[in-house]
Amino acid sequence: MELRHLQAFVAVAEELNFRRAAVRLHMSQPPLSQQIKRLEHEVGVPLLRRTTRQVALTAAGEAFLREARKTLESAEAAPRLARQAAAGEIGTVRLGFSGQTSYQVMLLIVRKFRERYPDVRFEILSPLYGGELVDRIHQQEIDAGLLRLPVPTGGLRVRELERHPLAVALPEHHRLVGRGVGMADLRGEPVISYPTNRGSVVNQLVQAACLRHGFSPRFVQEAPDTHTILSLVGAGSGIGLVPATAGHLKVPGVVLVPVHDAPPVPLALVWRADDANPALAGLVALLDEVVAEL
């Protein structure tokens, strides 16, 4: 079934006159009549009732007209949609991010992307830790991840966006509240940590920083996310080491104190080097603007 046959039928169905339809299509009447006959033969039922005085649609013709219009509209839209997809103006970007301490950066990225590409679908997957996000990127389950560094970067592109100081979350009456805190002050303290089996970069940084100061962290409990760590700290279960951006969570009874000699925690956008998604390229192109506003 050819598009020209559908166009011919729609013209006749709307004009209900072969002569006017032929003029509309810039063709003579006999070839138009032949196209309609071939179309009816292909469909297998009459689409038009013809008399010497008038042309009318059969019930089959009315049903066929609705679908023919949809098909022609889709055919007309297809080249435009293809060009938009190639330009990254439509499509989908799937972004994973590491959770509550990167919300503010994630919101800025999404806001800027929405302003520039309003017709692109933006899917968010969270919360996942850095190692989990890298796995999802390699498995092509997400297009990019907003995550903490360092992570294995083979086959990936990495754009660091910001560095966040590491802070210790303390119960409000803890002995270290109100004074400068260094890593050595945390020796022997019970630490509530992120999960040890999910690729938490913060856990790795904390362990390395403690070892540089001659001790191992005393992990006493794991928590699935930053908010739970802070809640357990507020309940007196221990202390927590978290990015200072956790301060926006404002858990009662918890004080965040910067650890002056702890390494900062980098936050980056990571994506596959061979990802050809034009919508993702649009996101990456906005990163300079994102960094300028952080």
Automatic annotation (TrEMBL):
Gene3D superfamilies assigned: Periplasmic binding protein-like II, Winged helix-like DNA-binding domain superfamily/Winged helix DNA-binding domain
InterPro entries recorded: LysR_HTH_N, LysR_subst-bd, WH-like_DNA-bd_sf, WH_DNA-bd_sf
UniProtKB keywords: DNA-binding, Transcription, Transcription regulation
HTH lysR-type domain: residues covered: 1-58
Gene Ontology annotations for the cellular component aspect, listed alphabetically: protein-DNA complex
One example GO MF annotation: DNA binding
Family according to the record: Belongs to the LysR transcriptional regulatory family.
The name this protein goes by in its record: DNA-binding transcriptional regulator, LysR family
Organism: Saccharopolyspora antimicrobica
